[in-house]
Write a structure and sequence with these properties.
Blueprint: H1 3-21, H2 28-66, H3 69-76, H4 82-90, H5 103-112, H6 117-129, H7 132-142, H8 144-168, H9 170-181, H10 192-209, H11 220-226, H12 228-245, H13 251-267, H14 272-287, H15 292-323, H16 334-340, H17 346-358, H18 366-375, H19 380-389, H20 395-405, H21 407-431
Length: 452
C-alpha cells in the first residue's frame, strides 16, 4: 500500500468526521444560518430554476445542436473582427435580463462551440451586468449619477475584461482557433433568418417569463409586466409552429403539449410557472430519443443541465450558509459587512467588491439591498464597486465557470472583475457626492424577493 496516496484520503475523512463531530448544533447563529441557507435555496428553486434556468438550458442546447462552429467563430471567435465580437458580446445584457447563474448555460454553449475566450467572457460579464431595467431602477432609486456610472462601467468592463482574458491566454486561444479552423464546414440546414427567428423567440420567452414588476403603475415596463404571460404564450405558440414546420418535430406531440399547457393556464391561472414547466416537459417529450437535430438538441440541453444544475444548487446552499439572505444573517454577521463598506478607502471598496462577488444577486435584487446599505452608511464608491462585481459574479457561478474553463481562467476572470470594480469604485467615490438616500420603501422591493 502506498501511504503517500492514502494520506489525502485519510485527511479528507478526518476533516469530514471532525466537521460533524464539532457541528455547532444549538448555536443560534449556526441554526439561523442553516435556516437562511435552506430558505434561500428554496426561493432560488421556486423563482429561478423553472423560469430562468430551464429555458436557458434549452437555448444553450440549441446553440450546440443548430449553430455551426464556423458561425460562432465568424462572429465571436478569437480571430473574428474585434468590433464585431466585442460589440455583440458587450451589449448582450441589454437584451438578456438574466442573473449571474442563468447566463452560465449560454456562456458554456457559445464557448464550447468555438467562441473566443475574450468575447465569451465579455458576454459572461455583460449578460447579468448590463440589464436595462436594472440600470433604470438603479438610477431612479439610488440616483441618476450612480445609474449612469453603473451603465458606463459595466459596458466598459465587459470589453476590458474580455480583451484582458484574450491577452493573458492568447497562446491557448491561437491553438484553439487553429484546431477549429481545420474542421469541415457542414452544409446549412436552414437560412440565417430562420435561425435568427428561432433563437429570437426562445430569448423572448425567457425575457417575458422573467419580466419583473415595475415600481410604478403606468409606463412601458408596467404595461409589459401586466401582459407578460400573454406575450410569453404568443412567443411560445410561434416557437411551436416553427419547431413543427422548420425542425420537423412531431405535430401530435407538440399539439398535445400545447393543449396541456393551455388547460393548465385556463384552470390554474394563479400558477403560471406550472404551465412553463409543463411546456418544458412537453418539449423534452418531443425531442428526446428523436433522430437528427431534434435528438441532438435534447442531448445538448441535458448535458448542460447535468453539469451546471448540481453545482449551482450546491453554490447557493454554501452562499446562503455563509452570507445568509436579505433580512437573515448567515455565519458572517451583516454588521461586519456594513462596517467594512463605509467611507471610500481602498480597503472598503475592495471588501465591497469581494463581498459582492461572493453573494448571489437575482436580477434587480441588488438595488434594494444596496439601498439599505447606503442608508446604513455605505459610501458611494463601495456601492458602485458592489454594483459592478455583484450581479456579474456569485459563489455558485464561480463554481460552474471553473467547470467550464478551468481554475486558471476562472481565477483570472474573478480577479479582473474584483480588481477593476475596486479601482473604479475608489475613483468614483473620490468625486461623487454621498447623499443620504434613506431606506427603500416596501413598494419598491421587486416582487418575489425575500424582502417583499
Amino acid at each position: 500500500m502506498n501511504s503517500r496516496k492514502e494520506l489525502p484520503i485519510l485527511a479528507l475523512m478526518a476533516t469530514v468526521f471532525a466537521g460533524f463531530y464539532f457541528l455547532p448544533l444549538g448555536s443560534p447563529r449556526f441554526d439561523d444560518a442553516v435556516q437562511a441557507s435552506l430558505a434561500l435555496t428554496k426561493w432560488y428553486a421556486r423563482e429561478h430554476v423553472i423560469l430562468c434556468l430551464l429555458p436557458a438550458f434549452w437555448i444553450a442546447g440549441a446553440i450546440g445542436a443548430f449553430v455551426s462552429q464556423q458561425s460562432v467563430m465568424r462572429y465571436l471567435g478569437a480571430n473574428a473582427p474585434r468590433v464585431t465580437s466585442y460589440g455583440v458580446a458587450s451589449v448582450s445584457g441589454t437584451i438578456l435580463a438574466v442573473c449571474s447563474c442563468t447566463v452560465l448555460p449560454l456562456f458554456s454553449g457559445i464557448y464550447r462551440m468555438g467562441a473566443g475566450l475574450g468575447p465569451a467572457t465579455a458576454f459572461l460579464y455583460s449578460g447579468p451586468a448590463i440589464n436595462t431595467l436594472a440600470i433604470i431602477l438603479t438610477a431612479k432609486v439610488l440616483g441618476l449619477q450612480l445609474g449612469v456610472a453603473r451603465a458606463v462601467g459595466a459596458v466598459t468592463f465587459s470589453v476590458v475584461i474580455g480583451m484582458a482574458m484574450h491577452v493573458i491566454f492568447r497562446h491557448e486561444e491561437k491553438a484553439k482557433a487553429a484546431r477549429i479552423a481545420e474542421l469541415p464546414v457542414p452544409p446549412a440546414m436552414r437560412s440565417l433568418w430562420q435561425t435568427a427567428v428561432f433563437f429570437g423567440l426562445m430569448v423572448a420567452v425567457l425575457i417575458f417569463a422573467n419580466w419583473s414588476r415595475a415600481d410604478e403603475e403606468a409606463g412601458f415596463f408596467a404595461t409589459v409586466f401586466a401582459a407578460k404571460w400573454w406575450l410569453t404564450s404568443i412567443c411560445a405558440a410561434f416557437l411551436g409552429l416553427i419547431l413543427w414546420r422548420w425542425f420537423a418535430l412531431s405535430a401530435v406531440r407538440l399539439a398535445v403539449t400545447a393543449g396541456v399547457v393551455a388547460l393548465s393556464a385556463l384552470f390554474i391561472p394563479s400558477q403560471p410557472t406550472l404551465a412553463v414547466l409543463l411546456g418544458v416537459a412537453g418539449l423534452a417529450w418531443a425531442t428526446a430519443g428523436q433522430p437528427g437535430e431534434a435528438g441532438e438538441w435534447f442531448v445538448q440541453s441535458w448535458a448542460n443541465a447535468k453539469q451546471i444544475f448540481p453545482l449551482l444548487i450546491a453554490g447557493v446552499v454554501v452562499a446562503g450558509l455563509l452570507l445568509g439572505r436579505p433580512g437573515h444573517e448567515g455565519l458572517i454577521p451583516n454588521e461586519w459587512i456594513a462596517r467594512s463598506v463605509g467611507g471610500n478607502s481602498l480597503a472598503a471598496n475592495a471588501f465591497s467588491a469581494v463581498a459582492g462577488a461572493l453573494m448571489y444577486f437575482a436580477t434587480l435584487t441588488e438595488v434594494p439591498i444596496l439601498q439599505g446599505l447606503l442608508g446604513s452608511g455605505m459610501g458611494q464608491g463601495p456601492a458602485l464597486a458592489l454594483l459592478l462585481a455583484g450581479p456579474a459574479l456569485s459563489l455558485p457561478s464561480m463554481i460552474v465557470i471553473n467547470s467550464v474553463i478551468g481554475p486558471k481562467k476562472t481565477a483570472a476572470y474573478v480577479a479582473l472583475v474584483v480588481v477593476l470594480s475596486t479601482l473604479v469604485g475608489w475613483a468614483y467615490g473620490a468625486i461623487a457626492p454621498n447623499p443620504d438616500r434613506g431606506s427603500l420603501p416596501a413598494e419598491q422591493v421587486p416582487a418575489g424577493h425575500p424582502l417583499a
